[in-house]
Amino acid sequence: GEKSWIYSFDPETKQQSAQWTPVGGTPPPNKLRRERSVAKQMVAVFVAKTGHLATVPLVQQRTVTGNWYANVCLPQASPKDSSSGILLHHDNAPAHKVAEFLAGMRIQELGHPPFSRDLAPCDFFVFPQIKRRMRGIRYGSPGAAVEAFIQHVEKVPASDWSSCFSKWFKRMKICIESAGEYFEKM
């Protein structure tokens, strides 16, 4: 599971707002620098090779706690039939309460090197791809932005999820071969 802020408005990147103009033609229009909205909501996103499992918004609090993660997020993200157990990849060490919940649910954790921030599927695939689609659109509230995020995630084709997880295993192999050192631009 990975956490990220979802904003009511996130401006387009410079690259997204670029326009082609004919050589010697009129100059491109001036662009106003728009700021990211202060209205935002934290979500925890859980995905599998088969697709989106859950997106859980952080409601009525501003801080992620072990209690919220163990009692709200993980039950929503856990498959109903986990008799064979599942693997969970975190990008940081979970709180004691979370570790107890995971052990009780037969969920095995995968380790994560401390300085390899773009190793998790949400960091290199889900968040960049979905947030890129949402840039430049104003949502009426953080909740509406989260709903749009969920709709976009649920539209990702099964082949893209499979490809994402294949890339994840390649990234992990490179990370193991480099003894956990951080590397950019994979």
In a few lines, what is going on in this structure?
The protein is of the alpha+beta class.
Word description of this protein:
- By secondary structure, the protein is α+β, with helices and mostly antiparallel strands.
- It has a single domain, classed as 2-Layer Sandwich (Nucleotidyltransferase, domain 5).
- It is 37% helix and 16% strand.
- The protein has helices at 66-77, 96-104, 121-134, 142-154, 158-177; strands at residues 2-7, 40-48, 51-57, 86-89, 107-110.
- It has a 3-stranded antiparallel beta sheet with strand order 1-2-3, sandwiched between helices. A two-stranded parallel sheet has the order 4-5.
- It starts with a strand and ends in a 9-residue tail after the last helix.
- The model has no long low-confidence stretch (mean pLDDT 79).
Any chance you could write out the topology, listing elements then pairs?
Blueprint (H helix, E strand, L loop, with lengths): L1 E6 L32 E9 L2 E7 L8 H12 L8 E4 L6 H9 L2 E4 L10 H14 L7 H13 L3 H20 L9
Parallel strand pairs: 4-5
Antiparallel strand pairs: 1-2, 2-3
Helix pairs in contact: 1-2, 3-4
Quickly give the structural class: alpha+beta
The figure for the number of domains is: 1
How does the major sheet shape up?
3 strands, antiparallel
> What are the segments in which pLDDT stays under 50 over at least 5 consecutive residues?
none
Biggest sheet strand line-up: 1-2-3
Q: Shape from CA axes?
A: globular
Mean pLDDT: 79
